[in-house]
Design brief:
This protein has three helices and twelve strands, in the order H-E-E-E-E-E-E-E-E-E-H-E-E-H-E. By secondary structure, it is an alpha+beta fold. Strands 1, 2, 3, 4, 5, 8, 9, 10, 11 and 12 form a ten-stranded mixed beta sheet that branches. Strands 6-7 form a two-stranded antiparallel ribbon.
């Protein structure tokens, strides 16, 4: 009796330890899976209230200034004060299959070189990543911009093109309006493009794009003396519409 009872007690303790061990193992696996999913990609989040892009509304409803820089100059930096962004720019072209290149650096956006430079007539386009498995990337806060926010691009010749946000729109990638984003609409535009919407863990990509539409409002041109001396263009002659 005593031996049987002792054996039964030991067996009961072993079962309890086994059940506890399995429960702890399941909890650990679940936590690891959640942690990996969270580390894989933070949510891009929704965009705010939207209105149609300027090229899709009547000209009487949106009349950007007929202003443009005289000559093409490569954009070298981008500043968006509303989200505390001030970064250098790279240059992007086309892939072999005809698609637009994306930046290789997650913290540096790129200007689409085959298109016009910011400030020229037409649609200049700058692309940047929203995030990576390491966390937020350079355009993570792009979706939070609102109408009237300033976007400034400094060109290699010292000129600064000042843009104002018109609207922020989210498109499914399957219905991305290439002509609207990259096409000319009769004024100096700048479109900022990143990813957003739902993240597809199977493909490792977001299903949508966020596009910020802006229009040129003024140009700051460095005086000839500043250009000749190579001094910083701190005091520039502003040209407004």
């Amino acid at each position: 009796m005593t031996s049987t009872a002792s054996t039964g007690a030991r067996s009961g303790r072993l079962r309890r330890w086994w059940v506890l061990a399995m429960a702890l193992l399941l909890v650990a696996v679940a936590c690891l899976a959640v942690g990996l999913r969270a580390h894989e990609h933070p949510l891009a989040g929704p965009v705010g209230p939207q209105r149609p892009p300027p090229a899709a509304v009547k000209r009487t409803a949106f009349t950007p200034p007929p202003l443009a820089v005289a000559e093409r100059s490569i954009p070298v930096s981008l500043s968006i004060p509303a989200i505390g962004l001030s970064v250098p720019l790279s240059q992007l072209g086309l892939n072999a299959d005809g698609t637009v290149e994306v930046p290789t650096d997650f913290q540096m956006p790129g200007w689409f070189d085959p298109g016009p430079a910011p400030g020229q007539l037409g649609s200049a386009v700058i692309l940047g990543h929203v995030d990576s498995y390491q966390g937020p990337a350079v355009f993570f806060q792009l979706r939070t911009l609102v109408t009237g926010d300033a976007v400034d691009v400094t060109l290699a010749d010292g000129t600064v093109a000042h843009f104002s946000v018109y609207t922020v729109v989210q498109y499914e990638k399957t219905g991305f309006p290439t002509g609207l984003v990259y096409g000319a609409h009769g004024y100096s535009a700048l479109q900022l493009v990143t990813c957003g919407g739902v993240f597809d863990s199977q493909t490792g990509h977001y299903l949508s794009n966020i596009v910020v539409y802006t229009a040129l409002v003024s140009i700051s041109v460095p005086p000839p003396a500043a250009l000749a001396s190579g001094a910083p263009a701190a005091a520039m002659a502003a040209v407004h519409a």
